[in-house]
Amino acid sequence: MAHGNTVKNAQKLQEDFYFSAFHPVEHYTLETVFYDLPRLANITCEEWISTALLKLCGMSRMNHIALENSNIALKQFNAAAWVLKTSTGTEDNGADMIGVHKNVQKKLVPWCSTFPGQDLGSELRQKREEGLIVVASLIDRLPNLGGLSRTCEVFGVSEYVVGNLKYTEDKQFRSLSVTAEQWVPISEVKPQFLSMYLEAKKKDGYTLIGAEQTSNSTRLNDFKFTQKTLLLLGNEKEGIPADLLPFLDVCVEIPQEGVVRSLNVHVTGALFVWEYMRQQALAGTHSNRVHSQEEET
Q1: Which of 37, 40, 49, 55 has the highest CB neighbour count under 10 A?
Q2: Which residues form the tRNA/rRNA methyltransferase SpoU type domain (predicted)?
Q3: What is the rounded CA–CA span in Å between residue 133 and residue 284?
Q4: Pair 39, 180 in one domain
């Protein structure tokens, strides 16, 4: 006990609510489970469920477990100082850390894992409306294709087109896609058939955009996307072949200030997808606002 920080650590543990006040039988209540324990374990306050909310949910009439604690022993405690630590592992003042801890990293478990055996991905894919199609048939590096798949899924792209569907089964693809291929609609168009595919999509009313630097290209920050847009990405080294440029309605480039004058195609695609989604979100907000004003009138 006399060596190192053993005595100091033991004293801290004895001061903790778990050793000094908590009683597993007397405190067996919904208030303890859903409010006090999360609070004292320093879980973000968004996860604390108050007794008032539990009452609204009709949980005050449960027979096998009480709603509230009969004493205020746990209410008198805050999260122990040894629980509140900086990212470097060093201890800090608990009061100072409380405010910082409110802004925490929050990752959600994919909802699909909650329903094993159900093909919820097909239902999700059917709900995607006609919007952005990302064509990556010219890309031949699997990490780029896998990363783009993830980007397309995250931002709700309507369709992701690759040169070969077998790419999605490769480990290099899946190491970057992290199961995104299960949730985003993916189709195959081989590079030699791209011209016919582009013509067909133009007849379907899509605006065909090429991510390429040309003599007449438009800057991305100046371009206005239509809802039905097809984005063609070029090859990692050669870009978009010259024989495909005439099929496009416009070429759009990303403004750059550096010397290299080139971005990885996955990064390029992600910037285009983000800008498209940003504009569509703003357009949706404006449309809702106009609709509300019309109803008021």
Answers
A1: 40
A2: 132-273
A3: 19
A4: no
Specify whether 127 is located in the same domain as 269. yes
Distance between CA atoms of residues 118 and 120, nearest Å:
6
* pTM score: 0.67
The residue among 265, 257, 252, 258 whose CA lies nearest residue 222 is 252
Is residue 2 in a domain? no
What does the block give as tokens for 111?
């909802």
Lookup: tokens for 41: 């374990």
Q: Say how far apart CA 147 and CA 60 lie, in whole Å.
A: 48
Q: How many domains does the chain have?
A: 2
Q: How many angstroms separate the CA atoms of 135 and 186, rounded?
A: 10
Q: Give CA–CA dist 67/64, Å, rounded.
A: 10
Band of residue 43 on the pLDDT scale cut at 50, 70, 90: confident
The parent domain of residue 264 ranges over 118-290
Which of residues 52, 76, 100 is at a domain's end? 76
